[in-house]
Amino acid sequence: MSAEVELAAGAATAARPHAERAAAIAREHGSTRHALKSDLVLAAALSAAASGAMGSESSGQNTGESDAADGSSGVMTDTSRVITLAEQVRDDTRKLGLYPLAWPAALLLSDANGTDDAAAASELRHEAGSIVHVLLRRADPLGRSLAMASPWVPKVC
To answer: What are the start and end residues of every segment in region (Disordered) (predicted)?
Structure first.
């Protein structure tokens, strides 16, 4: 919750340690949904900080984590970590039917990949919008109204 409060306040750099801690604790306790949501919040904090949004000092910070997947001795940047986390959350939430967590993961992935592959980014944004559309159709009138008024929910009219 602390990471989400910091993100809402525009403090991505301050959100990061809270998000890291929450993700680690969620994985320790074995709640799949909570772990996925915590990884999603962590990806959002890393993305906001890496993009320079919300008061981050630098872009592409080194996380100190090894990027062994590509065989290099380099380190994983915040952007590559956002992509890794968002892809995992997106894949797992779709597999488990946790669609309220799938659309924000698709948007994070879209933003992280946006400059590399515009067509793929557009497809991910469309996917997120489609998921939101289905969720809103299934929501009660009050829930739908609140979601449509939220600045964080994509407009899917």
So the answer is: 52-77
